[in-house]
Amino acid sequence: MREIPQWTNDMAIRQWGAMPRTVLEQTEHGGDFAKRHLINPVLLRMLGDLNGQRVLDAGCGNGYLSRMLAERHAQVVGVEPGQSLYEFAVERETAAPLGIRYVQADLCALPDLGAPFDAVVASMVLPAIPDWTGAMRACVDALKPGGLFVFTVNHPCFEQLWPSWREHGEYRTRRYLAEYEIPGPSGVDFHRTIATYLNQLVSLGCQIAEIAEPGLAPETAADGPDGIDAYVHLPNFLVVAARRGS
Ligand SMILES: C[S@@+](CC[C@H](N)C(=O)[O-])C[C@H]1O[C@@H](n2cnc3c(N)ncnc32)[C@H](O)[C@@H]1O
């Protein structure tokens, strides 16, 4: 396992940017099962009325969330550095235009994106970035004073929820306090504690507005994939909404 300091943003981006087209297509409409039932409803509620709002989808992947936001009449800019993801998002915009502007860039080296944003969303992105503090700062800097920053991460207490539940019928972990690498099928994530994320947000002058740990409704779990009942009992995601200081 590679030590964290050896990772650069470019190394992580190259892994994410090789995501196969089949995976991108599987999640192009609303994301995967967990995003459709746990993340999207909370994000949309936290963002509120999007009509005419200028929204940055930071680390937008295949653009599924950008499209959902644009369909709700937001003016969306999607930033994505990974090659296959960026190309897929642009291709979908070309085929069925929603007015989304996609920019291929690392959040830590953003070009000028124009006027400040009413809201910035970074869904499942900060854990994928070695220099996550630089990325979080860029998200906050992109906001208007008082603008809303919403981010989601795999819940740092339950990152292996599904596999652990299937193997043991409960959640087991041995490590929480260290920062470590979590290799995944499409790219690498990094474990950081809840306090690490929240204290960084506070140090950037943000005021936390809400924290959500969404659980799955039992009737929804009944229609889901094997082992998904874990999500009824424990939160797979942490969702944080904060306002930039004025
Ligand atoms: C788990 S995916 C989430 C994608 C999308 N937000 C979603 O919810 O489907 C992580 C994303 O972070 C992107 N990413 C990795 N490093 C980044 C960086 N330095 N700046 C911006 N995005 C980055 C990856 O390319 C990938 O699209």
From TrEMBL:
Keywords: Methyltransferase, S-adenosyl-L-methionine, Transferase
Native species: Catellatospora aurea
InterPro entries for this protein: Methyltransf_11 (IPR013216), SAM-dependent_MTases_sf (IPR029063)
Domain of life (superkingdom): Bacteria
Protein name: Class I SAM-dependent methyltransferase
EC numbers for this chain: 2.1.1.222, 2.1.1.64
Domain Methyltransferase type span(s) in chain numbering: 56-151
GO-annotated biological processes: methylation
Pfam families in UniProt: Methyltransf_11
Keyword S-adenosyl-L-methionine found: yes
One GO MF term attached to the UniProt entry: 3-demethylubiquinol 3-O-methyltransferase activity
Gene3D superfamilies named among the record's database cross-references: Vaccinia Virus protein VP39 (3.40.50.150)
